[in-house]
Amino acid sequence: MPVLKSVTQWLDATAERLPDKVAFGEDKAGTLTFAQLRGASRATGTFLAKRGINKQPVLVALGKTPQCVAAMLGAAYANCPYTPLDVDMPPGRIRKVIDTLQPAACITDAKHEQLMLESGLAQDSILLYECVSNTPIDEDALADVHERRISTDLLYIPFTSGSTGAPKGVAVSNGNVIDYTPQAAEKFGFNDETVFGQSVPFVFDGSILYVYQTLLNGCTDWIISKVDLMFAAKTVDFLNRHRCNTVYMMPTLYSIIAKSGILNKSKPEYLQKCLFVGEVMPNSVLNIWRRALPKATFANLFGPTEATTFLCYVVDRDFTDEEPLPIGTPYENNEVLLLDENGTETKRGEVGEMCVRGAKVTQGYYNDPERSAAVFVQNPLNRAYRETIYRTGDFAYLNEQGEYMFMGRKDFQVKLAGHRIELGEVEVQAMAMPGVELCACVLDEEAQRLVLFYVGEAGQKELRDELKRKLQGYMVPAQITSIDAMPRTGSGKIDRIALKEAL
Amino acid sequence: MEQQFIDLLNKVNEEIFDNPDADLVEDGVIDSLDIMNLVAGLEQVFGVDFDPDDIIPENFASPEALWGLVQRYQAER
Fold this sequence. Notes:
Distance between the termini of chain A: 61 Å
CATH topology of the domain at 8-16 and 26-172 in chain A: Rossmann fold
Strand content of chain B: under 5%
Distance between the termini of chain B: 19 Å
Shape of chain A: globular
Number of strands of chain B: 0
Strand order of the largest sheet of chain A: 2-1-12-11-13-14-15-16-17
Number of strands of chain A: 27
Oligomer: heterodimer
Largest sheet of chain A: 9 strands, mixed
Largest interface: A-B, 28 and 21 residues
CATH architecture of the domain at 8-16 and 26-172 in chain A: 3-Layer(aba) Sandwich
Helix content of chain A: 25-40%
Number of helices of chain A: 18
Order of helices and strands of chain B: HHHH
Strand content of chain A: 15-25%
Structural class of chain A: alpha/beta
Radius of gyration of chain A: 23 Å
Structural class of chain B: mainly alpha
């Protein structure tokens, strides 16, 4: 049996078994069968390999389309880690990603070529997908790449919000995804009858479930457009048109659909599996869905990018609207440790910081040894040999049923509509503006929006415009308010609780 | 458009009235949370009930389109 060292081997096997089955599809961008996907990816991979690009990062700046998947897998065939880029990102933030990543190339389309140039990429490193995906495939060149690669080589580097202002790139290896994907397939019963309705964009690491389950099992993944996702009726219509039986969405989306009342009028008829991730799912929302789809399976998945989703909870009993939902139990081949600040395990039932050990722990932050060392640390319970664990910064305790229950974060990282945001990143960008002396960003949980308070002479509109140039849309505070003085706690720190109370 | 309506829209998203030529949906001025907050706010302020089938891109493309919908609901009461 050949050694499994690259996720591309899954595509090779599935393309042989189901060449003409639709792998990925999008209403405007069209479809790619497994054979077509493999062809386009191997063509792209050939281009990169023949240019001598190997084990160097490749940016992929394409929309949420099947072609984007082909570009990403093209990098994978060339054994280059890919970084999906949100084309709605402002050039300032793209520049930061480029500074850290130092990509050898960027695969994009004509529409976004200018943006990539403005972000500081050299013209000759910008590749148009239309062109490279038509490169005549060089089987020998690709075979050579495959011969030399090993499973610990990186598959992709998704970027996530960084509290000091620069986003962090998580180095995820082929091995991490090779470990995770079959376990999730087994847990949730994914197979070649699974039809996904993909809501999340490729910049969100949760999308690896859609992509790699599809490659491994021969599923079909229908990608929902951004506009359709904004409107509950259109989302439900999409899921019905494409007969989607599986979704994996953020709780915010479940909430929007539940609150719209659409489920009383028209339901996603084919939906059997409803998975969610990325933020706390309110039981009030879950219960609306459970009543609408009584036969469907619901499951809560949990895990930061750095540890490739390591917990899951398949809903197996009733919960009142007010009860918290468990975040679950680890997949097989995974261990979770609950540690206190001294690195000692807390007693059973006590709250501790969740730390993960095992094959799902990723390889640190790319080009960032300092921030890597802060959270990818030696297992304090192991004195005998080098073993890296990842400190999640999430607190939890084990309940009586042996399920983990989430108890909040130890820092200023928040989730807004499932997006991970370091409040520090927003603050650093605001402080960089002349006329802002002091600022604090808080999350108004009830209204689900970010609010920025600042002290200084800068104009509100100018500050907003500046933040829009530097931050992703969802990170720009919905409300920016100038105040005379920042409230302080007894120890002199900014009193964020007082700020939140003022909302 | 009534002032209450304008105020509510500004409260949900400060940029809604910035560009009169923009399509609020297609140009990404508003997002899904804004839509949810607009519906909730309008239901509360104007005492109307949104039909989920009316929560579609066409009715949210501009303040005028949305105001048209609210007026239709008010007339139907």
